[in-house]
Specification:
Chain lengths: ~300, ~260
């Protein structure tokens, strides 16, 4: 080892040697480096987040003393029985999942043409401008955008003002499930556009040329080449739109009506109002299970590489 | 492969959807300058009179301070854990490597109420008092992924030959990190941090379950909208929040091409 290398750093030989030995040992054993780097974040995540999920799951089988309001740590299926027996919880769960599915479908249909335009038609310069135009709303405050819609859909809002201008009757969609559907589709749309764009951009141009050389028309190329290759992007986007809708309670509260409650609203009220964490936990297992199944299916379709 | 008509139609459609994405945001900015306290359209006139009472409202100030503190601390934790994880996963193949990525994406892939509820029940279980740190822990769980994704994407695009060249020239591991790796990833770190801060500053759902009795800024806004209180002030605050969430994202975008939860490469 050349001694001259050490002197400009002003380190004494021994400290430098130790540092070099540690550095060398870590460089030669990538697993050791990987392990020492990964252990703290993974341990922290497991201790806080995964443990929390486990506690959530376990507490779903607990109860609350109706008089004292204290936690009863007794294993029982009471919470699930209540959920199963009361039809109101079925309605709410079906509404949540139904609107989440509708929002996902709407966003996929709206996002695909834009993503296609951005990835395959727009010139590089306008592409990056479009990208910023799509990405900025995604990152601007979610709550603010929902609130904006509350003002737009209001009886005296912009929507009715525009309709009135065209001589059309006023739309009474404020505080309804329709409003919830529109607003969710609006707020999560960029989450769908970006992964589809990424998937479309990755399709090599030679594939399209090959398809044309083999005699396929535009529509055939689209069906047989573009669509299958873009599908992982659609699935990746749908994870966001579906999951975010499934776990939300702000939008139903702000733009929904009296019969727009989501699973999230019941969960929130159980925790915040009636202080019944076990019941909330039991109901929260519904979106957890739905998302679990969805994520496993999505992982199989290779959507995680497109995320 | 597209005909001219298809291209033009796609272009018009894209323009319409971009307008659809931006009109509500522009409208809410206009509402902040509404001279009437009635929230109807068209607005009565323009004024800046709501900003002063909004900024001087003590409840707003408390919420703002809590949001800034929580955002800064959560971002700090996310920076440390996210970059460690990214370095660990990069160039290190092992069984369960996919699961590690999956673990960090989980807090944003799972519905917000799940994360919120889960953290809430763990805090209740351990008798932790709700306060600044419970909010920070909640925010850090979903902020880690932004730093992780940004740093990992940058590491993957940084040629390993740079590191090897540095070692060949006699630098030890720490010097290589200090003079080669760190400069290469620094903008990715900053952009990841900015995005994490924007994410934290805006979060409502997880926060409601981890904040206890105190209000972050989004919680303050949400509460006021729901109760229909001081709406003109809320409109003014909302514009401030928009600015605080958009500015870091614009900066992040300028620093890296791969910014965002949803990167393009």
């Amino acid at each position: 080892m050349a001694a001259g290398l050490d002197s400009p750093q002003g380190l004494n030989g021994r400290g430098r040697g130790a540092r070099r030995r540690i550095g060398g040992a870590l460089y030669r054993r990538p697993w050791l480096r990987g392990l020492s780097l990964l252990a703290p974040p993974v341990a922290a995540f497991t201790a806080v987040y995964v443990a929390a999920l486990a506690v959530l799951f376990v507490s779903a089988f607990w109860g609350v003393d109706p008089f004292a309001g204290t936690l009863i740590r007794h294993f029982s299926f009471d919470n699930f029985r209540t959920l199963w027996d009361a039809s109101v919880y079925h309605t709410i769960a079906l509404r949540t999942i139904g609107i989440a599915a509708a929002v996902t479908l709407t966003d996929a249909l709206v996002a695909f043409p834009i993503a296609y335009f951005m990835a395959r038609v727009a010139k590089p310069r306008s592409r990056s401008i479009l990208f910023v135009m799509v990405l900025l709303p995604l990152w601007s405050s979610y709550l603010v955008r929902v609130y904006a819609w509350r003002l737009i859909l209001n009886k005296e809002g912009v929507l009715n003002w525009v309709l009135h201008g065209f001589g059309l009757p006023a739309a009474n969609i404020a505080y309804s499930n329709t409003a919830v559907w529109i607003v969710f589709s609006y707020v999560w749309l960029p989450f769908m556009i970006v992964p589809i764009y990424a998937a479309l951009e990755r399709i090599p141009h030679s594939y399209l040329e090959a398809s044309r050389d083999l005699g396929a028309r535009g529509s055939r190329t689209f069906r047989s080449i573009v669509l299958p290759l873009a599908l992982p992007g659609v699935v990746a986007g749908s994870i966001f739109t579906f999951s975010l809708t499934l776990g939300d309670y702000i939008t139903p509260k702000l733009v929904g009506g009296s019969s727009s409650d989501f699973i999230g609203n019941v969960v929130f009220d159980s925790v915040g109002v009636s202080n019944n964490v076990p019941f909330a936990a039991a109901y929260a297992t519904v979106p957890l299970l739905v998302m679990g199944v969805y994520l496993v299916l999505a992982k199989r379709s290779g959507a995680f590489e497109a995320l | 492969m597209e005909t001219r008509t298809t291209r033009v139609t796609l272009g018009i459609f894209t323009g319409l959807v971009i307008a659809f994405l931006w009109i509500p945001i522009l409208l809410i900015v206009l509402y902040a300058f509404n001279s009437s306290n009635v929230q109807s359209w068209p607005i009565a006139g323009l004024t800046t009179k709501w900003f002063s009472p909004a900024i001087h409202d003590p409840a707003f100030q408390d919420a703002m301070v809590l949001s800034l503190k929580a955002g800064a601390l959560a971002t700090g934790i996310a920076l440390v854990l996210g970059s460690m994880a990214a370095f660990g996963v990069h160039r290190f193949r092992f069984f369960g490597r996919e699961s590690v990525s999956f673990l960090f994406v989980l807090p944003i892939a799972l519905p917000g109420i799940i994360t919120g509820m889960a953290l809430n029940s763990v805090f209740v279980f351990w008798h932790v008092n709700f306060g600044l740190w419970t909010v920070v822990v909640g925010h850090a769980t979903f902020c880690v992924v932004t730093v992780y994704n940004n740093v990992l994407a940058r590491l993957r695009r940084t040629p390993t030959s740079l590191v090897e060249a540095s070692m060949d020239l006699g630098a030890d591991g720490f010097q290589t990190f200090r003079y080669v790796t760190f400069p290469a990833i620094s903008t990715a770190l900053i952009s990841g941090a900015l995005l994490a801060f924007a994410l934290s500053f805006d979060e409502v759902i997880v926060t409601t379950f981890t904040a206890g009795a105190q209000n972050t800024l989004p919680l303050w806004i949400f509460g006021n909208i729901r109760l229909g209180q001081t709406l003109p002030e809320v409109n003014a605050v909302v514009v401030l929040v928009l600015a605080v969430t958009i500015i870091p994202v614009v900066l992040a975008q300028r620093l890296t091409r791969e910014s965002g939860l949803l990167r393009t490469e």
